[in-house]
TrEMBL record, chain A:
PANTHER family: ABC TRANSPORTER PERMEASE
One Pfam family, short name: ABC2_membrane_2
Keyword annotations from UniProtKB, A to Z: Membrane, Transmembrane, Transmembrane helix
Species annotation: Brachybacterium conglomeratum
UniProt key word Membrane: yes
Protein's name according to its UniProt entry: ABC transporter permease
Source domain of life: Bacteria
From TrEMBL, chain B:
Similarity comment: family membership: Belongs to the ABC transporter superfamily.
Organism encoding this protein: Brachybacterium paraconglomeratum
Matching Pfam families: ABC_tran
Record's protein name: ABC transporter ATP-binding protein
CDD domains from the UniProt entry: ABC_DR_subfamily_A
Gene3D superfamilies the record matches: P-loop containing nucleotide triphosphate hydrolases (3.40.50.300)
Lineage: Bacteria, Bacillati, Actinomycetota, Actinomycetes, Micrococcales
PROSITE patterns reported for this sequence: ABC_TRANSPORTER_2 (PS50893)
Domain of life where this protein originates: Bacteria
Keywords (A to Z) from UniProt: ATP-binding, Nucleotide-binding, Transport
Residue ranges, annotated region (Disordered): 1-31
UniProt entry tagged with the keyword ATP-binding: yes
InterPro entries per record: AAA+_ATPase, ABC_transporter-like_ATP-bd, P-loop_NTPase
Amino acid sequence: MSTPQTLEAGPGTDRPRGRGRYALRWRGLRLVTSLELRQRLRSKRWYVALAVWTLVMMGIGALGLGPTLYSAQWEDVGPIAAMVFSLQMILVLFAMLLVVPALSAGSINGDRTAGTLATLQASLLSPAEIVLGKLLAGFLTGLAFLVLALPSLVPIALLGSIGIL
Amino acid sequence: MTQSTPADGPPPPLPPVDHASPQRAPGPEGPGIVAEHVSRAFGSVQAVADLSFTAPRGAVTALVGPNGCGKSTLMLMLASLLAPDSGRVLVGGVDPAEDSAAVRAQVGWMPDQFGAWDSLRVAEVLEVMGRAYFLPSAQLRGRVDELLELLDLVPLAQQPAHVLSRGQKQRLGLARALVHDPQVLVLDEPASGLDPASRRRLLQVVRSRAADGATVLVSSHILGELEEMADHVVFMDGGRAVDASSLRDLAARPRPWRISSLHHQALVEALDQLQVRHGGVVAGDRTTSGHAEAVVELPDDATAARLLADLTAAGARIIGFGPTTGRLEAAYLASDAAQREGAL
């Protein structure tokens, strides 16, 4: 058995400072965000979804540009690449706009059903930290869709001579 | 670290958590929990109606009542998760409506049905809860280890929460409620699903916390266990507190006593001689104990002691003498709530 320890107050940064439902502390926000991401990373369904997304993006790129690269002239590739890029970006934005709020709202609802939301609410975390933490986790998750689309987006952007701006 | 068994003795007391937080509730004097004419409705359902009671510090108060009488709703209000429609609750002298953070800092709440984050390991769940209470990072690990030891969760520390049995989840829930060393414990059906050894451990933990000065409020339908655990009891019915008493004072209330004798006729004659009213003496061949038995209603424990002495002197050959139910159960069964069909 470990030697009993007396917990002492940590440095000032460890003490909660804000009060009320709108209190926002970095520690609280980071806790909720990391909790969400940890659960997501341990879910097999998540990896399946990302794999499907990656294949879809690459498929669009291949199907959109493949025939052109095979049969058309080189100067015709650019405009078609630009069109395929636009289509992919619309999909990326659409996915992120769907994923971020859906994941966040679903997470709050899921926690409520599972009984874990009340546990967090009964702690010293503020409602703002819980909601924004889940929103941030949803945003970071949505970014994963963008990152996985890059291997398909970047070559097509280069082919279409699409600049950063 | 080897797994300790209940036979090793009572678990060590938890070391105090010295938050020195500005949110620590004031008022070391006075009751730990006060409810003053509290009401709460959910649409047309009046869950709590004009409820008033107090739970003292340094003691365990049992909350007893039929299903749907408002126990869980009351506990949600004490955990500052629900606001009363009228009246007020004070936890450690603080009204959650005025400073919910101060109340949450000192309340350890264990709901009757809760979830754990299924993909997290047991130790991780406690770590998350410790961080949710902003415990100092440097000592969080030690705190988690102490709780795992206290609630006999060490062998399960690295298991994901979803593989735990109900009883194991209950122990995890209690550990979660204790992580920040709360001064007020609100436990909703904590013994539900626990095996006998775990129930003994729960009893020891709860008594230990009360001995350290915490206010403990426990609700349960397992009245026999509550009787061992509690110092006071509040009976609820229809959202109201209909009765309150200390466990000691319940001994002064009438309850039925079972008398067992080696000889049927001797018991009959002794009871008639002493003019004790009873519902008849059942012969030994018709009882599960194999002895002749009679049940008598006695006003208090002192009368029971006198009757035992008198029966023995009258040659009744007594082999067993004791209440048919615990004090708590007897008091509850005598209430209006218990008389209604479907109660408990």
